[in-house]
Design a protein that fits this description.
The chain is mainly alpha-helical. It has one domain. Helix content is 80%, strand content 0%. Helix 3 runs antiparallel to helix 7, helix 4 runs antiparallel to helix 11 and helix 5 packs across helix 6. The radius of gyration is 19 Å and the shape is globular.
Length: 303
């Protein structure tokens, strides 16, 4: 792995880690639905602009419906869940729970997509569940009662990511594929269309929102253009450079950045027992995403 790849990996993790801080700022100010909609809308605008500037393809080759639906599953619902969680949890909690995505993928693959569940991956799932229990029971009973709904929202989001990964393979990759930038832009369009009715309903019947909050607007713009649009481009370059397996190591780096930004800019103080649960979840992710000897033997070498 080149130094430039390492720098790109760290920068990507810093961007995605910062998204939880930005949602933590914007969601209480604008509301979960409004924040989620604005994130995917600005993400779509940013990706569409990038495609225009880079003269990318806007062709979906007959997969438009599937791409839009993937946007709902992979962005619309998860971003809404994270925005709800941002009103209930410190940014560090959401960042750590986001790392359960590979574990969710293993569970969903085994239950619904006939994926082989190896002993190592099974151990990762069990370990991850233990980590979630440790985080959920951190602090006193009153705090746990407040945190639990936010934790459930985060787990719904990561379950959606797990489902979307398998559906992308079935609907897109096994049907001739699609340019990754076009797929990303189309998915954000699908998420925008999905959240638009909820956004309109929130504006017309929801609580009054003070839209003149500059800090919240800066956070929404940052999470849309930087943590969504720009991050996608960095991720695609990373996959092309070091391969999808090595790119998954970003999963380990997002939680430390999420906790760091929350501590630096939001004065979030997390109990020591939280970090024990976080370490257990990171161990679970490692067990899930690192291939066994047999899997490594069957994989092509990435240089």
């Amino acid at each position: 792995m080149q130094k430039s790849d390492i720098a790109r990996l760290l920068f990507l993790a810093a961007l995605w880690g910062a998204s939880f801080m930005f949602m933590r700022i914007a969601s209480p100010a604008f509301g979960a639905i409004n924040t989620a909609f604005l994130r995917v809308f600005f993400g779509f605008c940013g990706l569409a602009t990038i495609l225009l500037v880079m003269r990318g393809s806007f062709r979906f080759d007959g997969k438009m419906k599937q791409v839009l639906l993937l946007g709902v599953i992979n962005s619309g619902i998860p971003f809404l869940m994270y925005c709800i969680a941002a009103q209930l949890l410190p940014a560090g909690y959401s960042a750590i729970l986001n790392a359960t995505t590979p574990m969710m993928g293993v569970m969903i693959g085994a239950l619904f997509f006939a994926e082989a569940l190896t002993l190592k991956k099974s151990a990762g799932v069990v370990t991850g569940l233990l980590g979630i229990i440790l985080i959920t029971t951190t602090g006193n009973a009153s705090e746990a009662h407040i945190l639990l709904p936010g934790i459930v929202c985060c787990l719904i989001a990561t379950a959606c990511y797990g489902v979307a990964g398998f559906l992308t393979r079935r609907w897109i990759n096994q049907r001739g594929g699609l340019d990754a930038r076009t797929l990303a832009m189309g998915s954000q369009l699908g998420a925008t269309l999905f959240l638009l009715p909820f956004f309109i309903g929130s504006l017309t019947t929801g609580p009054q929102v003070q839209w003149g909050q500059s800090e919240a607007w800066l956070s929404v713009l940052a999470v849309g253009f930087l943590c969504t649009a720009a991050a996608y481009i960095f991720y695609f370059h990373l996959v092309a450079s070091i391969g999808p397996l090595r790119s998954l190591t970003v999963t380990f780096l997002i939680p430390p950045f999420g906790v760091l930004w929350g501590w630096l800019f939001l004065d979030e103080a997390l109990p020591g027992s939280f970090f024990i649960g976080a370490a257990v979840i990171c161990l679970a992710v490692w067990l899930v995403i690192t291939p066994s000897r047999a899997e490594r033997a069957n994989q092509p070498q990435v240089k």
